[in-house]
Amino acid sequence: MVRELSVKPIVMKLGGSVITDKEKKLTPNLPAIERLANEISRANVLSLVLVHGGGSFGHPVAEQYGLNEGYKDSSQVMGFSITHQAMTKLNKLIVGSLINHNIPAVEVQPSSCVVTKAGRIQSMEEKPLKKMLEMEFVPVLYGDVVVDSEAGFAILSGDQIVSSLAITLDARRIVVGVDVDGLFTGDPKTDSSARLIQHITLEGLKNLEPLIEGSKVTDVTGGMLGKMFELKPAVEHGIPAIIVNATEPNRVYRALKGEKVVGTVIER
Ligand code: IPE
Protein backbone atom coordinates (compact mmCIF):
# COMPACT_ATOMS: atom_id res chain seq x y z
CA MET A 1 0.00 0.00 0.00
CA VAL A 2 2.53 2.59 -1.16
CA ARG A 3 1.30 5.50 -3.20
CA GLU A 4 2.81 8.62 -4.69
CA LEU A 5 2.21 11.88 -2.83
CA SER A 6 -0.84 12.87 -4.87
CA VAL A 7 -2.44 15.32 -2.46
CA LYS A 8 -0.61 18.50 -1.52
CA PRO A 9 -0.13 18.55 2.23
CA ILE A 10 -1.31 21.10 4.73
CA VAL A 11 1.47 22.27 7.02
CA MET A 12 0.21 23.44 10.38
CA LYS A 13 2.05 25.13 13.24
CA LEU A 14 0.69 25.12 16.76
CA GLY A 15 2.27 27.96 18.71
CA GLY A 16 3.92 27.39 22.05
CA SER A 17 1.54 29.92 23.60
CA VAL A 18 -1.36 27.59 22.77
CA ILE A 19 0.00 24.23 23.90
CA THR A 20 1.91 25.42 26.98
CA ASP A 21 1.40 27.89 29.79
CA LYS A 22 3.89 30.52 28.66
CA GLU A 23 4.11 32.06 32.13
CA LYS A 24 4.99 28.79 33.94
CA LYS A 25 8.21 27.06 32.98
CA LEU A 26 7.83 23.50 31.62
CA THR A 27 4.06 23.53 31.99
CA PRO A 28 1.93 22.02 29.22
CA ASN A 29 -1.64 23.12 28.54
CA LEU A 30 -3.07 19.62 28.53
CA PRO A 31 -6.74 20.54 27.94
CA ALA A 32 -5.68 22.60 24.87
CA ILE A 33 -3.51 19.75 23.53
CA GLU A 34 -6.42 17.34 24.00
CA ARG A 35 -8.97 19.63 22.32
CA LEU A 36 -6.65 20.32 19.38
CA ALA A 37 -5.94 16.61 18.86
CA ASN A 38 -9.70 16.14 18.73
CA GLU A 39 -10.13 18.95 16.19
CA ILE A 40 -7.31 17.59 14.01
CA SER A 41 -8.85 14.13 14.19
CA ARG A 42 -12.31 15.40 13.23
CA ALA A 43 -10.91 17.45 10.34
CA ASN A 44 -9.54 14.18 8.92
CA VAL A 45 -7.03 15.88 6.58
CA LEU A 46 -5.42 13.74 3.94
CA SER A 47 -1.71 14.65 4.07
CA LEU A 48 -0.84 16.75 7.09
CA VAL A 49 2.43 17.85 8.67
CA LEU A 50 2.38 19.32 12.16
CA VAL A 51 4.99 21.57 13.70
CA HIS A 52 4.70 22.82 17.26
CA GLY A 53 6.41 25.58 19.14
CA GLY A 54 8.34 25.52 22.37
CA GLY A 55 6.46 27.90 24.64
CA SER A 56 7.54 27.44 28.25
CA PHE A 57 9.42 24.24 27.34
CA GLY A 58 11.71 25.93 24.82
CA HIS A 59 12.25 29.63 25.26
CA PRO A 60 13.07 29.99 28.99
CA VAL A 61 15.45 27.00 28.88
CA ALA A 62 17.20 28.17 25.71
CA GLU A 63 17.50 31.64 27.17
CA GLN A 64 18.95 30.37 30.43
CA TYR A 65 21.95 28.99 28.48
CA GLY A 66 22.16 31.88 26.01
CA LEU A 67 21.64 29.48 23.13
CA ASN A 68 20.27 32.14 20.78
CA GLU A 69 23.74 33.72 20.70
CA GLY A 70 25.31 30.54 19.31
CA TYR A 71 28.24 28.69 20.85
CA LYS A 72 30.18 30.88 23.29
CA ASP A 73 31.45 28.42 25.90
CA SER A 74 31.33 24.73 26.79
CA SER A 75 28.66 25.16 29.48
CA GLN A 76 26.14 25.74 26.71
CA VAL A 77 26.66 22.23 25.34
CA MET A 78 24.78 20.82 28.31
CA GLY A 79 22.22 23.58 27.82
CA PHE A 80 21.65 22.37 24.26
CA SER A 81 20.94 18.84 25.55
CA ILE A 82 18.61 20.09 28.27
CA THR A 83 16.70 22.36 25.89
CA HIS A 84 16.31 19.58 23.35
CA GLN A 85 15.19 17.20 26.07
CA ALA A 86 12.54 19.70 27.20
CA MET A 87 11.26 19.91 23.62
CA THR A 88 11.07 16.12 23.28
CA LYS A 89 9.02 15.97 26.50
CA LEU A 90 6.51 18.42 25.05
CA ASN A 91 6.54 16.56 21.73
CA LYS A 92 5.77 13.27 23.47
CA LEU A 93 2.66 14.79 25.04
CA ILE A 94 1.45 16.04 21.66
CA VAL A 95 2.23 12.86 19.74
CA GLY A 96 0.66 10.81 22.55
CA SER A 97 -2.53 12.83 22.44
CA LEU A 98 -2.72 12.57 18.64
CA ILE A 99 -2.27 8.81 18.77
CA ASN A 100 -5.04 8.60 21.38
CA HIS A 101 -7.24 10.35 18.83
CA ASN A 102 -6.36 7.74 16.23
CA ILE A 103 -3.96 9.95 14.26
CA PRO A 104 -0.83 8.09 13.05
CA ALA A 105 1.53 10.76 14.40
CA VAL A 106 5.30 10.23 14.29
CA GLU A 107 7.90 12.48 15.85
CA VAL A 108 10.44 13.95 13.42
CA GLN A 109 13.28 15.46 15.38
CA PRO A 110 14.61 18.63 13.71
CA SER A 111 17.96 18.47 15.52
CA SER A 112 18.78 15.22 13.73
CA CYS A 113 17.72 16.23 10.23
CA VAL A 114 18.53 19.96 9.97
CA VAL A 115 21.75 21.98 9.82
CA THR A 116 21.45 25.76 9.89
CA LYS A 117 23.89 28.44 8.78
CA ALA A 118 23.74 31.60 10.87
CA GLY A 119 20.32 30.48 12.12
CA ARG A 120 18.81 29.80 8.69
CA ILE A 121 18.05 26.28 7.43
CA GLN A 122 20.98 25.24 5.24
CA SER A 123 20.05 21.61 4.72
CA MET A 124 17.23 19.36 5.77
CA GLU A 125 16.85 15.64 5.22
CA GLU A 126 13.47 15.47 3.56
CA LYS A 127 13.31 11.92 2.23
CA PRO A 128 11.90 10.27 5.37
CA LEU A 129 9.31 13.03 5.66
CA LYS A 130 8.10 12.67 2.08
CA LYS A 131 7.94 8.92 2.43
CA MET A 132 6.01 9.25 5.69
CA LEU A 133 3.42 11.43 3.95
CA GLU A 134 3.08 8.93 1.12
CA MET A 135 2.38 6.32 3.78
CA GLU A 136 -0.25 8.62 5.37
CA PHE A 137 1.62 9.22 8.59
CA VAL A 138 1.35 12.61 10.27
CA PRO A 139 4.91 13.79 10.94
CA VAL A 140 5.21 16.03 14.00
CA LEU A 141 8.17 18.40 14.11
CA TYR A 142 8.91 21.22 16.54
CA GLY A 143 11.02 24.28 17.18
CA ASP A 144 14.33 22.86 18.36
CA VAL A 145 18.00 23.52 19.00
CA VAL A 146 20.04 22.46 15.99
CA VAL A 147 23.69 22.44 14.93
CA ASP A 148 24.77 25.46 12.94
CA SER A 149 27.66 25.47 10.46
CA GLU A 150 28.77 28.94 11.55
CA ALA A 151 27.51 29.56 15.07
CA GLY A 152 27.98 26.01 16.43
CA PHE A 153 24.32 25.76 17.23
CA ALA A 154 21.16 27.77 16.83
CA ILE A 155 17.54 27.90 17.88
CA LEU A 156 15.37 26.91 14.97
CA SER A 157 11.82 28.21 15.32
CA GLY A 158 8.83 26.14 14.32
CA ASP A 159 7.83 29.04 12.08
CA GLN A 160 10.99 28.74 9.99
CA ILE A 161 10.46 24.98 9.74
CA VAL A 162 6.85 25.50 8.59
CA SER A 163 7.77 27.90 5.82
CA SER A 164 10.69 25.83 4.60
CA LEU A 165 8.71 22.57 4.68
CA ALA A 166 5.72 24.12 2.94
CA ILE A 167 8.00 25.07 0.03
CA THR A 168 9.83 21.73 -0.04
CA LEU A 169 6.59 19.73 0.10
CA ASP A 170 4.67 22.08 -2.21
CA ALA A 171 1.99 22.53 0.44
CA ARG A 172 -1.65 23.30 -0.26
CA ARG A 173 -1.77 25.80 2.55
CA ILE A 174 -0.23 26.77 5.85
CA VAL A 175 -2.27 27.03 9.03
CA VAL A 176 -0.74 28.85 11.98
CA GLY A 177 -2.48 28.50 15.34
CA VAL A 178 -1.65 31.26 17.81
CA ASP A 179 -3.24 32.78 20.94
CA VAL A 180 -4.69 35.85 19.22
CA ASP A 181 -7.33 36.06 16.49
CA GLY A 182 -4.80 36.85 13.76
CA LEU A 183 -2.80 39.80 12.61
CA PHE A 184 -3.91 43.11 14.09
CA THR A 185 -3.08 46.70 13.30
CA GLY A 186 -1.63 46.91 16.84
CA ASP A 187 -1.19 44.68 19.89
CA PRO A 188 -4.73 43.54 20.79
CA LYS A 189 -3.57 42.63 24.32
CA THR A 190 -2.68 46.22 25.17
CA ASP A 191 -4.33 48.37 22.49
CA SER A 192 -8.14 48.31 22.38
CA SER A 193 -8.22 50.16 19.06
CA ALA A 194 -6.25 47.37 17.36
CA ARG A 195 -8.24 45.95 14.44
CA LEU A 196 -8.12 42.40 12.99
CA ILE A 197 -6.85 42.22 9.43
CA GLN A 198 -8.83 39.47 7.69
CA HIS A 199 -6.91 39.40 4.44
CA ILE A 200 -3.54 40.77 3.49
CA THR A 201 -1.13 40.49 0.57
CA LEU A 202 2.66 40.61 0.79
CA GLU A 203 2.51 44.19 -0.44
CA GLY A 204 0.06 45.12 2.32
CA LEU A 205 2.23 43.36 4.86
CA LYS A 206 5.21 45.46 3.88
CA ASN A 207 3.30 48.66 4.64
CA LEU A 208 2.20 47.27 7.96
CA GLU A 209 5.57 46.09 9.23
CA PRO A 210 6.42 49.19 11.25
CA LEU A 211 3.08 48.79 13.09
CA ILE A 212 3.33 45.17 14.15
CA GLU A 213 4.85 44.91 17.57
CA GLY A 214 6.92 42.01 18.88
CA SER A 215 5.31 39.94 21.62
CA LYS A 216 6.25 41.05 25.11
CA VAL A 217 6.68 37.72 26.92
CA THR A 218 9.93 35.77 26.62
CA ASP A 219 10.23 34.75 22.99
CA VAL A 220 13.75 34.47 21.66
CA THR A 221 12.47 33.96 18.12
CA GLY A 222 10.24 37.04 17.89
CA GLY A 223 6.49 37.60 18.22
CA MET A 224 4.00 38.23 15.42
CA LEU A 225 6.49 40.17 13.31
CA GLY A 226 8.89 37.24 13.43
CA LYS A 227 6.04 34.96 12.34
CA MET A 228 5.20 37.16 9.35
CA PHE A 229 8.83 37.37 8.38
CA GLU A 230 9.14 33.58 8.43
CA LEU A 231 5.94 32.95 6.46
CA LYS A 232 6.89 35.32 3.65
CA PRO A 233 9.06 32.96 1.54
CA ALA A 234 6.28 30.35 1.42
CA VAL A 235 3.63 32.96 0.58
CA GLU A 236 5.93 34.37 -2.12
CA HIS A 237 6.00 30.84 -3.46
CA GLY A 238 2.22 30.97 -3.89
CA ILE A 239 1.25 29.06 -0.74
CA PRO A 240 -1.51 30.86 1.20
CA ALA A 241 -1.21 31.01 4.97
CA ILE A 242 -3.96 31.47 7.51
CA ILE A 243 -3.38 32.58 11.06
CA VAL A 244 -6.09 31.56 13.52
CA ASN A 245 -6.66 31.66 17.25
CA ALA A 246 -6.04 28.07 18.32
CA THR A 247 -7.16 28.81 21.88
CA GLU A 248 -10.71 29.24 20.54
CA PRO A 249 -12.55 25.96 19.91
CA ASN A 250 -13.09 24.89 16.30
CA ARG A 251 -10.98 27.54 14.59
CA VAL A 252 -8.19 25.09 13.84
CA TYR A 253 -10.81 22.57 12.71
CA ARG A 254 -12.35 25.10 10.30
CA ALA A 255 -8.97 26.28 9.00
CA LEU A 256 -7.98 22.67 8.31
CA LYS A 257 -11.28 22.01 6.50
CA GLY A 258 -10.85 25.19 4.45
CA GLU A 259 -14.06 26.63 5.92
CA LYS A 260 -14.65 30.31 6.62
CA VAL A 261 -13.11 31.20 9.97
CA VAL A 262 -12.04 34.22 12.02
CA GLY A 263 -8.36 34.82 11.26
CA THR A 264 -5.92 36.45 8.87
CA VAL A 265 -5.28 35.07 5.40
CA ILE A 266 -1.94 36.04 3.85
CA GLU A 267 -1.65 35.61 0.11
CA ARG A 268 0.77 36.61 -2.61
C1 IPE B 1 11.13 27.52 19.87
O1 IPE B 1 10.23 27.21 18.88
C2 IPE B 1 12.02 26.33 20.18
C3 IPE B 1 13.04 26.59 21.24
C4 IPE B 1 13.16 27.70 21.91
C5 IPE B 1 13.96 25.50 21.49
P1 IPE B 1 9.15 28.31 18.42
O2 IPE B 1 9.81 29.64 18.29
O3 IPE B 1 8.49 27.78 17.20
O4 IPE B 1 8.14 28.31 19.64
P2 IPE B 1 6.89 29.26 19.98
O5 IPE B 1 5.75 28.83 19.14
O6 IPE B 1 7.30 30.68 19.71
O7 IPE B 1 6.66 29.01 21.44
Write up what this structure looks like.
- By secondary structure, the chain is α/β, with parallel strands linked by helices.
- 37% of the residues lie in helices and 22% in strands.
- The chain is built from 9 helices and 14 strands.
- The strands form 3 sheets. Strands 3-6-2-1-9-13-14-12 form an 8-stranded mixed sheet, sandwiched between helices. A 4-stranded mixed sheet has the order 5-4-7-8. It has a two-stranded antiparallel ribbon with strand order 10-11.
- The protein is globular.
- The mean pLDDT is 92.
- The structure holds 3-methylbut-3-enyl trihydrogen diphosphate.
- 3-methylbut-3-enyl trihydrogen diphosphate binds at residues 15-16, 53-55, 58-59, 62, 83, 87, 143-145, 155, 157-159, 219, 221.
Oligomeric status: single chain
Shape: globular
Heteromolecules bound: 3-methylbut-3-enyl trihydrogen diphosphate
Radius of gyration: 17 Å
Instruction: Report, as a whole number of angstroms, the end-to-end distance.
Output: 37 Å
**Structural class category:** alpha/beta
| Largest sheet descriptor | 8 strands, mixed
State which percent range the strand residues make up: 15-25%
**H and E string:** EHHEHHEEEHEEEHEEEEHHEHE
Strand neighbour order, sheet with most strands: 3-6-2-1-9-13-14-12
Overall mean pLDDT stands at: 92
Count of DSSP helices? 9
Q: What percent of the residues sit in helical stretches (DSSP H or I)?
A: 25-40%
Question: What ranges have pLDDT less than 50 throughout 5 or more consecutive residues?
Answer: none
Total strands? 14
